[in-house]
Amino acid sequence: MNFKQIRGYATIILLIAGFLTTILIYFSSPKISEAEKINTQKEIPIHTGKYILIHLDTMTLDLKDGVTTLQTIPLVSKGKPASYYETIGGYYLHDYKEPLHFSSIGHVYMPYSVHIFGNFFIHGIPYYPDGTKVSSSYSGGCIRLSDDDAKTVYDFIERGTPIIITQHGEYDFSPTPHTPITLESITMTRLMVATISLEFLTQDNEINTTSGTTTRRTLLKDLLDGDDTVSTLYAQAMGKNTFIQSMNDKVKSLGLTNTVFIDVTQEAQTTPEDYERFMNYIGMYKAYLLTISSSTPTISQ
């Protein structure tokens, strides 16, 4: 056998070895699922398991299981945009539900009530104690469904099930990247105090101040214009520690990874990225606050 023949055989052996190696690598490598491919393309986390996705823009509610939509349900009504009872947005974990919840704000019964956050629920058509149904054209901020659809959601949800409420995409409230805190903002604190007041407290209830008796809602402008005594009054209504905890719970629901509130009258510890997202939340879900403030917050505050 001459050298040319030996070189030819060696080439064939190397080609066969390379082919076998390619096959071995293919079958031994971890396979990428379709969900993982989508995740890679979007560079955002894919929601897994059961969750509820509410689109305020299209007035629909999706019952989801991972990437699969099990059912789409139409909303009957939501809170009026730019009103003080506007429907909230965010990512929340369901904590409790009641087959018939009585609202101390609207003084109505709400069938198949699923709690979201603060005073906000998903529920069926409310009715007054005398049995009269509430007009379907008005909502105090809750997500209202038909009674049959509300029961479907009620039966679907379990404690800890995520509820995502958005006007755009379901990943709007994914956690911001971890970065060092580089910003302190009293404006952010005042806006968050106002937000928690709107989302937890009855706005038309009377409240005593040093200058007399008024309602919580009338004090919002004073708060946003720099009167931090209003923040103290709001916090007293819930208990200061509970109020601050609610502020930080809201931080989590908006995905503000780098933001902490330590008091109702002290600067928020945050980052420009978190601040910007929070301002976007105010603009899209709490626009009422911008209509009553004398000044528009900026990224530098």
The CATH superfamily label of the largest domain reads: L,D-transpeptidase catalytic domain-like
Taking strands numbered 1, 2, ... along the chain, how are they ordered across the largest sheet? 3-2-1-9-4
Query: Mean of the pLDDT scores?
Result: 86
Taking pLDDT < 50 over at least 5 consecutive residues as the criterion, the unreliable ranges are: 2-44
CATH class of the largest domain: Mainly Beta
SSE order in H/E notation? HHEEEEEEEEHEEHEEHHHEHH
Largest sheet features: 5 strands, mixed
CATH architecture of the largest domain: Beta Barrel
Q: If helices are DSSP runs of H or I spanning 4 or more residues, what is the number of helices?
A: 9
**Number of separate structural domains:** 2
Supply the helix-strand structural class: alpha+beta
Q: What Rg, in angstroms, do the CA atoms define?
A: 26 Å
* Beta strands, count: 13
In helices, the fraction of residues equals 25-40%
Please state the overall shape, judged from the principal axes of the Cα atoms. globular
What is the CATH topology assignment of the largest domain? L,D-transpeptidase catalytic domain-like
Beta percentage is 15-25%
Please name the defining characteristics of this protein:
301 residues, alpha+beta, L,D-transpeptidase catalytic domain-like, Beta-lactamase, 2 domains, 5-stranded mixed β-sheet, 4-stranded mixed β-sheet, 9 helices, 22% strand, disordered N terminus
